[in-house]
Amino acid sequence: MEKKKRSLKVPHTYVLLFAMVVICALMTWLIPAGSYDRVIDEATGKEVVDAASFHFTGDGGIGFFDVMKQFIAGMESSSDIIFLIFILGGSFMILQDTGALTAGVHSMARKFGKRQNLILLLFMFLFSVLGGTIGMAEEVIVFIPLLVTLCNELKLDRMVALAVVMVGARIGFTSGLINPFTVGVAQGLADLPLYSGLGYRLIWYGLILVVTGWYIIRYVNKIKKDPTLSIMHGVELEGGEEVSDENADTTLNARRIIVIVGFFITIALMVFGVFQWGWYMEEIATVFLILGIASGLISGMGPNKVAQSFVRGTKDMVFAALVVGVAKAILLTLQDGGIIDSVVYYASGALDGLPKVVAANGMYVFQLLMNFLIPSGSGQAAATMPIMAPLADTLDITRQTAVLAFHYGDGFTNLIAPTLGSLMAAVAVSKVPFEKYLKWVMPLCLIWIVFGLASVTIATLIGYGPF
Predict the structure, then answer these.
(1) Of 133, 128, 137, whose CA–CA distance to 207 is shortest?
(2) Distance between CA 80 and CA 215 in Å, rounded?
(3) An example Gene Ontology cellular component term from the record (predicted)?
(4) How far apart (Å, rounded) are the C-alpha atoms in residues 276 and 271?
(5) How many domains, in total, are found in the chain?
(6) Which distant-in-sequence residues (6+ apart) come within 8 Å of 447 by Cβ?
(7) Element (H or E) spanning 34, and its range?
(8) Both ends of the chain: CA-CA distance in Å?
(9) Residue 443: which domain range?
């Protein structure tokens, strides 16, 4: 029996990712390499494909040595996220050692008591609004350590923290309310009024929000009744063990209150900087580095203790940081193999001439799969919408429906796509093993995909337009 159990053990995260890289390398030998020419779209100023320019290049097939080089290249190209993870790990360890976060979360948990499910749902709703309006994705990573602390206080596992933050943000991002990076770009490329058709998207946003809230709270209630049902039960944390805060000093003194206020000021500054000054990973990492050092000194830790805490925190994030680089190797293998444009070309040809309901859902399924190859929302729009928008015209499908199929397809598989750096970073920072996360999230992802099929079908039948 023991041997059987060992044989059924899920592979380590790195083994799973390495296997995906190998599969992608094999695909570069099976699918002919091809390319579209890129031109600048006058309406949006973005570089997009020229739909009539596809040609086979004949340079396909990635060899063994080049495949292994992709892991190094993945680390280099993901350096901004990797260093953000290290800085967050070090800074949050300093914050943890000040006792301010633990004291603040303890006070919140004590105040809300039995209404913890409501608090979790409110956090999820807040992140969904941020995802649906300002397109917050990578930025939510900074909230995960805070929610992990809260969930520890509520006797819940890290999966709940990850779900509330990351899945919550994906609800809004995927539903495409007024997301500038998906709906905004796609509608511009399809010559549609910006953010038109919002009413229809709001209906499906509400449905997805409700079913996701139910899914998370159902899991919360299950593990509260029986902790052994937790997805994290018996899991040895990569990069450091869980530290118990049961005997910690949770007094909210003046210094800790100043640190907590500083934390929320930093969050507000980050959000403002991202959308007013164009901040990205480097600037976000900088403000959290300042927050960590300042918090340690304000709390009276002293320079040496601050440095020791920071190093300890970064050590805990080695596994998390490396996962992002290893996952990026999957995407680089596909890009270097030159098969991404070929997949777009073959898929568009297969959709041409199909009945419009079948074709619309074919567009949706195509975008679901393309999201693994082009995880960037705006990048996927630039690569596919110049082809899908005119194709929709020939199939008697509204361009609004084509955009709907795009942003659902781009968003739903963001829950499971290992090529998406922000997903891998969020999972890694939460210290939830990727294979465990997949087990938890896959049923929810399938529910979302079914909702997408229903939404695209109805949109096709009613001639979804700008209302």
Answers:
(1) 128
(2) 33
(3) plasma membrane
(4) 8
(5) 1
(6) 211, 215
(7) strand 34-35
(8) 60
(9) 13-26+63-462
Residue 142 lies in a domain: yes
Per-residue pLDDT of the chain (467 residues; tens, 9 = 90+): 444 444 446 677 788 888 888 888 998 898 898 888 888 877 667 777 787 888 888 777 888 898 899 889 988 888 888 888 888 888 888 988 888 877 777 777 677 767 888 889 998 998 898 888 877 777 788 888 888 888 888 888 899 999 999 999 899 888 878 877 788 888 888 888 888 888 899 999 999 999 999 999 999 999 999 989 898 887 766 555 454 455 556 677 888 889 888 888 988 888 788 778 888 788 888 998 999 999 899 988 888 999 999 998 888 788 778 888 888 888 888 888 888 888 888 888 888 778 889 999 999 998 998 888 887 777 788 888 888 888 888 888 898 999 999 889 888 888 888 888 788 888 888 888 888 999 999 999 999 999 999 999 999 999 887 65
Name 328's Cβ contacts closer than 8 Å, sequence gap at least 6.
73, 74, 75, 77, 78, 419, 421
Residue 42 included in any domain: no
pTM over 0.85: no
**Cβ-contact 382, 406 below 8 angstroms:** no
Residue with tokens 């999820």: 124
- The answer as to whether 49 is a domain residue is no
Q: Does 3 fall in a domain? A: no
Quickly tell me which residue has 């190094």 as its tokens. 72
State the residue for tokens 């979804």.
464
Could you give the 3-state DSSP secondary structure of residue 154? coil
- CA separation for the pair 125, 443 (Å, rounded): 20
